[in-house]
TrEMBL record:
Record keyword Endoplasmic reticulum present: yes
GO-annotated biological processes: SRP-dependent cotranslational protein targeting to membrane
Protein name: SRPRA protein
Family: Belongs to the GTP-binding SRP family.
Major localisation: endoplasmic reticulum
PROSITE patterns from the UniProt entry: SRP54
One cellular component term from this protein's GO annotations in UniProt: endoplasmic reticulum membrane
Length: 368
């Protein structure tokens, strides 16, 4: 085990969750528009070049649907190419058209730039969470009530639940909170051993002697083939008695249409009433992640025994570093469910955890 490799960026500020970054190419586009001063574009005394420059500009007129349709069609195709679900791309363009129809344009403003700006504003608004999830604040609130803050992770097989749970553990430890990991994936071979390895490595990075003799992360496990809901309940009780600040509950990966496993997950959530239920989806599969999220939410509602079933509270979007600028799944997931993206996984080290930056995602989405 090499601690420096596990940490990745050695110059980072410990405990800080950095914003997701993406460089926009708007400045590059602006540079292309600027004329080369050594090659004047307008001939002296000629009007042809001037009319060419003014082509496409709108001078104080009301926008009509006919003006916008060609631009909206291109925008829709662009969004679909960036992995936004087709029906969502259509709905977005329709809402932009309704917002702009009849609007009086200023002089020297192109229809394209106006539609693009309106679409960008709509996309940023979608990604801005209606309900902000501030995990650190909520953990401190739970501390004041002398109880552990409980987070349950769910999702389909292979999306990176255990890996990102370990990243979130590392982030919490660096913020001074002790973590108990509940190994409730009692189905997949090697699931408990994987968490045991992460626990050992996290303790190597943050040994008790660096925290006044306090063990900052511990694994609660009962092996395989046991009832996951029961293990979670025991882990939460153990955390309360031992003074742990946070319990992170790892669950078995399951397909959204597997009724027995979805019933078991609904039971785990209903019985233990976690503070936060996070759906872990990978950006790599694009719109398949949207379908998984919608069906998970519906399955939790259908299989819950409670009158007001507990549903998913937020999203962990993993493998974000594998998709280049095809970031449309982030838009689709938040648009369909109105659930905030709480964490973004971007790499293989414990420090590769980011918070969603709406403007950065939209910049990537609008990139040509």
């Amino acid at each position: 085990f090499f601690p420096l490799q596990a940490l990745g960026d050695k110059n980072r500020e410990p405990g800080r969750l950095y914003d997701l970054e993406y460089e926009s190419d708007d400045e590059a586009e602006e540079e292309k528009v600027v004329q080369n001063p050594s090659k004047p574009s307008v001939k002296k005394g000629g009007l042809g070049g001037m009319f060419g420059m003014l082509k496409g500009l709108v001078g104080s007129k009301s926008l009509t649907r006919d003006d916008m349709d060609p631009v909206l069609e291109k925008m829709k195709d662009h969004l679909i190419a960036k992995n936004v679900a087709a029906e969502i791309a259509v709905q977005l363009c329709e809402s932009v058209a309704k917002k702009l129809e009849g609007k009086v344009m200023g002089t020297f403003t192109t229809v394209t730039s106006t539609v693009k700006q309106a679409l960008q504003e709509a996309l940023v608004q979608i990604l801005q969470p209606q309900r902000r999830v501030d995990v650190l604040r909520d953990v401190m609130d739970a501390q004041r009530h002398r109880r552990p803050y409980v987070v349950t992770f769910c999702g389909v097989n292979g999306v990176g639940k255990s890996t990102n749970l370990a990243k979130i553990s590392f982030w919490l430890i660096e913020n001074g909170f002790s973590v108990l990991i509940a190994a409730c994936d009692t189905f997949r071979a090697g699931a408990v051993e994987q968490l045991r390895t992460h626990t050992r490595r996290l303790n190597a990075l943050h040994p008790p002697e660096s925290h006044g003799g306090r063990t900052m992360v511990q694994l609660y496990e009962k092996g395989y083939g046991k009832d996951a809901a029961g293990i979670a309940m025991e882990a939460i009780s153990y955390a309360r008695n031992q003074g742990f600040d946070v319990v992170l509950v790892d669950t078995a990966g399951r397909m959204q249409d597997n009724a027995p496993l979805m019933t078991a997950l609904a039971k785990l959530i209903a019985v233990n009433a976690p503070d936060l239920v996070l759906f872990v989806g990978e950006a790599l599969v694009g719109n398949e992640a949207v379908d998984q999220l919608v069906k998970f939410n519906k399955a939790l509602a259908d299989h819950s025994m409670a009158q007001t079933p507990r549903l998913i509270d937020g999203i962990v979007l993993t493998k974000f570093d594998t998709i280049d600028d095809k970031v449309g799944a982030a838009i689709s997931m938040t648009y369909i469910t109105s659930k905030p993206i709480v964490f973004v996984g971007t790499g293989q080290t414990y420090c590769d955890l980011r918070s969603l930056n709406a403007k950065a995602v939209v910049a990537a989405l609008m990139k040509a």
